[in-house]
């Protein structure tokens, strides 16, 4: 079942596949995603879809769309190129003038930023085994791991990456900052 959550002009569609454990309330999922959108400079009044699923679906998506075999914890499918988002530390590409607000859309329509798929099964396993935190050595709750994966996936939607050391350092620092704020419930 998919339910929309409207927060500060952003519409976050959250789909939870049948049988997927409830690790975080949907309202919390939406607020974590919106915090990352805000921090990354995503256009106002945009939409994003989040699918909370299992390893099997992530493995299928990974194979179909990226050509990689096996499961992963989070996949992001951005619909806008990175240039539509503000420049951030570690990224040497210039931003496009006008960004996503230059799209001609019907009145009150939202630009769709993309889709994120998260394996809740993988998040639970990584937390339980002490393999969380993107570094594979963080011991924390499954809710914290899921929050990280949602934040990480959202930043990828907004043009962040971790292929280059400088950008990876900046991305990890922003993730830590956003998770600290999320832990305080802000």
- Percent helix: 25-40%
Low-confidence stretches: 97-101
- Which architecture would the CATH scheme give at its second level? 3-Layer(aba) Sandwich
CATH fold descriptor = Collagenase (Catalytic Domain)
The topology string of helices and strands comes to EEHEHEEHHH
Tally of contiguous helical segments: 5
What gap, in angstroms, lies between the N and C termini? 27 Å
Order of the strands making up the biggest sheet: 1-2-3-5-4
Radius of gyration: 16 Å
Mean pLDDT across every amino acid position:
87
Using DSSP, what is the number of strands? 5
| 3D shape | globular
CATH C-level:
Alpha Beta
**CATH homologous superfamily annotation:** Metalloproteases ("zincins"), catalytic domain
Largest sheet: 5 strands, mixed
Number of domains: 1
What portion of the residues fall into strands of 2 or more residues? 15-25%
- The helix/strand class is alpha/beta
Ordered list of secondary-structure elements with their pairings:
Blueprint: E1 2-7, E2 10-16, H1 26-40, E3 46-53, H2 55-66, E4 74-78, E5 111-119, H3 120-128, H4 142-157, H5 165-184
Give a written overview of the molecule.
This protein is of the alpha/beta class and 186 residues long. The chain has a single domain (2-184), classed as 3-Layer(aba) Sandwich (Collagenase (Catalytic Domain)), CATH 3.40.390.30. The chain has helices spanning 26-40, 55-66, 120-128, 142-157, 165-184, and strands at residues 2-7, 10-16, 46-53, 74-78, 111-119. A five-stranded mixed beta sheet has the order 1-2-3-5-4, sandwiched between helices. Helix 1 crosses helix 4, helix 1 (26-40) crosses helix 5 and helix 3 (120-128) crosses helix 4 (142-157).
């Amino acid at each position: 079942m998919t339910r929309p959550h409207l927060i500060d002009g952003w519409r976050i569609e959250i789909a939870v596949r049948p049988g997927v454990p409830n690790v975080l309330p949907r309202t919390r999922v939406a607020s974590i995603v919106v915090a990352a959108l805000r921090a990354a400079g995503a256009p106002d009044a945009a939409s994003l879809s989040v699918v909370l699923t299992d390893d099997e679906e992530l493995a299928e998506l990974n194979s179909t769309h990226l050509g990689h075999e096996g499961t992963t914890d989070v996949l992001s499918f951005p619909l806008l190129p990175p240039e539509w988002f503000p420049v951030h530390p570690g990224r040497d590409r210039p931003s496009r003038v006008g960004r996503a607000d230059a799209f001609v859309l019907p009145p009150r329509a939202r630009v769709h930023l993309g889709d994120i798929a998260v394996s809740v099964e993988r998040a639970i396993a990584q937390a339980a085994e002490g393999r969380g935190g993107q570094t594979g050595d963080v011991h924390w709750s499954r809710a914290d791991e899921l929050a990280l994966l949602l934040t990480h996936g959202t930043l990828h939607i907004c043009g962040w990456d971790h292929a280059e050391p400088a950008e990876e350092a900046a991305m990890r620092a922003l993730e830590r900052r956003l998770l600290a704020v999320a832990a305080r419930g802000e």
